Design the sequence.
């Protein structure tokens, strides 16, 4: 299994509009971050995690691969704002499969009601929404286990797939969820910035989760310009923890075998 980071930025992206800080003015491609999203590939089939407003550009940059389904962590705009751009993928069967919580499903029906009309006009995206809770489910021969986390007061989901756990926008994670992923090979976890934030983990809090989970390797995502320059922020990280960046491809072993990254 492999994961491609389509975007590793926070809701504003990096560079941020009207900002002249060193990060936003940086020419280093590692400091250019689209909204957080990822592509998981298993047995040559691709599963999308979140579909933000940068989705179209993200797909073009990675060659417009076929997609099997979309997993949604929560309904904030930076994670669902690109769903209308899924229309090229919506010709299949009963519509393009989306897996999400019931509150997210309701929000999507409110945001893009034309996609769920009784008599939709030609060309409108067609979705097959599958409401999920905490029970594992199958997508493209891969078992996916939802992980309950809290985005301040909003319950949202992370996802465990094989030896990968993907968590974004978490502020707190219950001990039961930590227990489900303890000792996993690869952990992706959000770390917004160095200073505290009301609804996202900061760097220190994310590192505490890494210490509890004890993965072989952890990648930090959903990063704002306040984290600092990629090259400098990377130097502050302990061994086994890395800053993710847009376009990074990581390989997750099935049985903790050799791994590599591009």
Sequence:
């Amino acid at each position: 299994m492999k994961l491609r980071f389509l975007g590793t930025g926070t809701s504003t992206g990096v560079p941020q509009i009207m900002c002249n800080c060193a990060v936003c003015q940086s020419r280093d491609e590692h400091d250019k971050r689209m909204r957080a999203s990822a592509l998981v590939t298993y047995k040559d089939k691709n599963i999308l995690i979140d579909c933000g407003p940068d989705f179209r550009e993200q797909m073009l940059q990675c060659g417009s691969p076929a997609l099997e389904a979309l997993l949604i962590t929560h309904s904030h705009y930076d994670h669902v704002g690109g769903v209308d751009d899924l229309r090229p993928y919506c010709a299949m069967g009963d519509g393009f499969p989306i897996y999400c919580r019931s509150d997210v499903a309701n929000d999507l029906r409110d945001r893009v009601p034309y996609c769920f009309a009784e008599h939709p006009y030609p060309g409108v995206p067609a979705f097959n929404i599958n409401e999920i809770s905490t029970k594992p489910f199958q997508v493209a021969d891969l078992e996916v286990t939802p992980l309950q986390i809290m985005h301040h007061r909003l319950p949202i989901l992370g996802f465990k797939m094989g030896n990968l756990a993907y968590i974004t926008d978490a502020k707190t994670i219950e001990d039961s969820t930590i227990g489900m992923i303890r000792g996993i090979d690869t952990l992706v976890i959000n770390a917004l910035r160095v200073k505290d934030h009301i609804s996202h983990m900061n760097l220190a809090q994310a590192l505490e989760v890494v210490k509890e989970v004890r993965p072989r390797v952890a990648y930090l995502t959903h990063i704002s310009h306040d984290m600092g320059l990629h090259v400098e922020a990377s130097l502050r990280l302990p061994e086994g923890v890395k800053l993710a960046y847009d376009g990074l491809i990581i390989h997750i072993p099935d049985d903790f075998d050799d791994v590599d990254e591009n």
Remarks:
- Residues 2-251 form a domain with the Metallo-beta-lactamase; Chain A fold (CATH 3.60.15.10).
- The first strand starts at residue 2 and ends at 7.
